[in-house]
Design goal:
This protein is 70% helix and 0% strand. The protein contains 14 helices and no strands.
């Protein structure tokens, strides 16, 4: 029963971990300088202007700049056009066109595009549903260290989609992503420690990772993660909670230098 509950909770999220990725504001000088470079044909400047328009937001203008950059082979611009085509922002919603853009960028070895293409395959969005192909694209992205891909592979293993069901493998992939600060992976890893699936049950480790997830989550995730953390803490002694907090402090101190 415990396995069924965990797998049902996780299965609902397979194929969505990469959506909304690549939402980082461009690092630029002044907008006038950036626009001048873009109008001279600088594909990176065109991409950065598109990202800036996406944050304002002016999605139609973002699409226009991304297209200019994509025409010059800019992989991230192609991926961004795929994301906008998938969501219907600034352009007609078209899942098949999104896949076409993802594929172009994925073939240029852009890990986020490979992960997005894996998502499309896993969901059957714009392409026939194919879990085996989804896993293949996730692996290509994971081989480049992409945390979303690591997380997605964990979900595929825990639910047995495209690969033999394997809790230990799921835990291994989530540990890789959790070590990069990926909140969802930290939540999944903490849940595995709490239930003893794929790893020896360890309430202290569970609380450590669930606390990380709760503190790093965004969007609709915080409430779910906080609820899981608080539930884990209720069954622990004060000494165990303190031990989890010490481990969290040690890990955080080591994690911060890796981000610089």
């Amino acid at each position: 029963m415990q396995r069924v509950l965990v797998m049902l909770a996780l299965a609902a999220t397979v194929g969505v971990v990469a959506e909304g990725a690549q939402r980082t504001a461009p690092q630029t000088n002044t907008e006038a300088e950036l626009r001048a470079r873009a109008e001279r044909g600088d594909s990176q400047a065109q991409y950065d202007l598109g990202m800036g328009c996406g944050f304002q937001p002016d999605f139609k203008q973002a699409v226009a700049w991304f297209r200019k950059a994509a025409e010059q082979g800019h992989a991230k611009a192609k991926h961004s056009l795929g994301l906008l085509s998938n969501s219907g922002h600034g352009v007609a919603q078209d899942e098949a066109q999104a896949v076409a853009w993802y594929r172009q960028a994925a073939e240029q070895r852009l890990p986020k595009a490979q992960c997005s293409l894996g998502v499309s395959c896993a969901k059957g969005s714009g392409v026939p549903h194919d879990d085996v192909q989804a896993v293949a694209w996730y692996r290509l992205a994971a081989d480049q260290g992409d945390a979303d891909a690591h997380t997605a592979l964990g979900l595929m293993y825990v639910t047995g989609r495209g690969v033999p069901q394997d809790d230990a493998q799921a835990t291994t992939w989530w540990r890789k992503a959790a070590g990069q600060g990926h909140a969802a992976a930290q939540f999944y890893l903490g849940s595995m420690y709490a239930t003893g699936l794929g790893v020896r049950e360890d309430g202290v480790q569970a609380l450590k990772w669930l606390d990380f997830a709760a503190s790093r989550a965004s969007g609709d995730e915080p409430a779910k993660f906080i609820k899981a953390r608080d539930a884990a803490a209720k069954g622990m002694t004060t000494a165990q909670v303190s031990q989890a907090q010490r481990r969290a402090k040690t890990w955080t101190a080591a994690f911060r230098p890796r981000q610089t």
